[in-house]
Amino acid sequence: MAVASVVFNGSRINAADVATGWTNYVGGGAAPAAEAQLAYQNSLAVNKKVISTTQREGVDYKYGSTIDMTNALYKLWFVKVIVADSFSLNTTWGVEVSIGSGDTSNFHQYNLAGSGSNLTCYNGYPPQGGYLITSIDPNIDTWREAESGTYVQSATTWWAVGAQFASGAAKSENVAMDAIDIGTGLTITAGDGASTEGSFLDFVTWDQNTTTNRYGVVTGQGNIVRSHGLLTIGTASVTEFLDTTSIVLFPDGYHSSGLVGVAVGMSHSSSIINIGSLLIGEGTINGGGSEDTRPDFVVTGTDGNFDCSATMQNFRNVTFTSICDVANADIECELLTQASANISNSTIRTNSLTSVACLQSPTFGESSDLHDVDFIQAGAGHAIELSTVNGSYTFTNLTFTNYGADGTDSAALDITAASGITTVNYTGTAPTYKTAGATVVLNNSKTLTVTVKDENNVAVQGAQVYIQKSATETGEYGHPANPYTSHATNNVRGDGTFDITQTVETDNPASGWLFVRDNVNKDEQTYRYTSRGGNTFTFPAAITGADEGGGTSTTIVDAGIGASGIVEGDTIHNTASPYQWAIVLSLDTNSATTTPLSAGGSWAGLSYSVNTLAKTYATGDTATVPLMNEETNASGIASESYNYGGEMDVDIRVRLSTGSTKYFPYKTTATISGNMSVTAVLIEDTIIS
């Protein structure tokens, strides 16, 4: 493959190597001349001696045809002008450049050196002197300082420079304009990975360091590059580009959004592009509907290999594609488009608009997509938008710093779903959020594990493991020492939900068991729930059936009941008066064994329901939620995910009431401070056994 190749994306209107077509701007005197002393591009520039202290005078050029500067190919004028004695310029408006569709009227005037300029970057001439190089989009009316007549941008034909001095004392030509170039920027392709891959310094070599080019898109020295336009890396042609050392600056200026920055084209399967440079945007967010002059970094295409470890400061839009691997990067921007890119071990500094998220429609993962990223609020807005109704998201090592409180326009998460339940599984500190109406469940998932063995270190299968918050946790609801209380009227027999007067604790299992106590009749029913949020526990879909006639006070006979979805521990009740209930103890294919039916009745011929309330509950009735209520598996292990919010003291109980070997019940205490693992050793009850 060839050495890296750079081209200018635009057109040279005039090289300023001869004075044909050039005249005096405003003032009289000697005609402009193309001379060497003030040249930048090639060997000559068109110049004039100016000493005016009352008006801006200089040189102008009239093109022989018109140029459409509304065309996307010609949006920027790359300005190259010089005032040799810049130290004595008028401080309010010392340097003017103009562009128009007429030579005596119909043009816009721009202040490039003076306190009256429309951007602070033009408040004075560059203090080191020399050429003033910048870019202007004449389609942005905000930038003009003044106008004469009506400029028609689609029929551009005239360019000018003028200077005004506080004290005019020049002895020779002191004001000049060099080549007039219009376009968008530079493109680099090719590059040979075996010898000389392309880099940002190649733009400087081709533009500034080649005098016959000098389009004014980039300047630089050493490893520093300054760009006034769009630097395109790669097209449909194969490109190899590697840069991890350059410092690329994008100065503020009278350009437009999207026309300054970096564009990467991944449109060839053999392209290899690796950018780890320091990229600094010096643009600003200009109020009152004005232009955003910060740079963009945009990747298009999904062929080849693209790696990014760059530091991007003060960018507007950053766009990746699925081909991109972003690692060890530091990105500050307003809008980040992930498009399934892998982003990891990086920092994203969000600086979005008020109440707008920087990262929208992201995809998350553990070893791909978005993971292990620090989000830091650097301005306004949210970090991440989550829009899917009933969406469930898992954050792997995502952190959020300096964001606002829940409900604010600067909260970390913007939940735009207006209904349903949005679930966020996270680690570390809980992200703050603002919701458009969806119920938000934040789960800081830790694993609670209990391993049950006997005295011979043999795993015990089928042991019931129960974990509950300790009585010392007086600030927590939902445990026996401080239970939830039933809503006064919302919990009616047959309902598929249970409402409480408190807010459900966020560390209750996302799905689990609810123990409801009827404090009048002094009995307790157990229900499974599949979700919880706000003040409500929601049960699975109701399961109904009927005994086929062979039931007893503890047995239901119904073909297929074993595969119906009923499980041991469910509360089951008949659906007609006198509305008796029981707890399921075991299941076979066509029968279920229960505790004795309440009030001494029989299941024979009765209809039944599971996953609905067995009775109506009222004020004074209470409910508790265990953190674990599971049986051990063949390895003697019971585990449960826990939404960690801080250290929590818990009671652990283990028992095994079935089988030929009997054990004493086991009880201990522990503190959850992260993932918790406890080993319980059961002692055989040799008297009963």
Write the CATH fold name of one domain. Jelly Rolls
Mean pLDDT: 95
User: How far is the N terminus from the C terminus?
Assistant: 82 Å
Low-confidence stretches: none
Tally of separate helices: 1
Judging by the overall fold, what is the CATH architecture of one domain? Sandwich
Number of strands: 57
Largest sheet: 13 strands, mixed
Q: CATH homologous superfamily of one domain, by name?
A: Galactose-binding domain-like
Radius of gyration: 37 Å
CATH class of one domain: Mainly Beta
Task: Work out the strand percent.
Answer: 35-45%
Large-scale geometry: elongated
Q: What structural class do the secondary elements suggest?
A: mainly beta
Helix content: under 10%
Structure description:
The protein is mainly beta and 689 residues long. Among the domains are: 17-178, Galactose-binding domain-like (Jelly Rolls, Sandwich), CATH 2.60.120.260; 186-333; 446-470 and 626-682, Immunoglobulin-like, CATH 2.60.40.1120; 543-610. Helices cover 1% and strands 43% of the residues. The strands form 9 sheets. Strands 14, 15, 17, 18, 20, 21, 23, 24, 26, 27, 29, 31 and 34 form a 13-stranded mixed sheet that branches. Strands 1, 3, 4, 6, 9, 12, 13, 16, 19, 22, 25 and 28 form a 12-stranded mixed sheet that branches. A hairpin with a 2-residue loop joins strand 14 (218-221) and strand 15 (224-227).
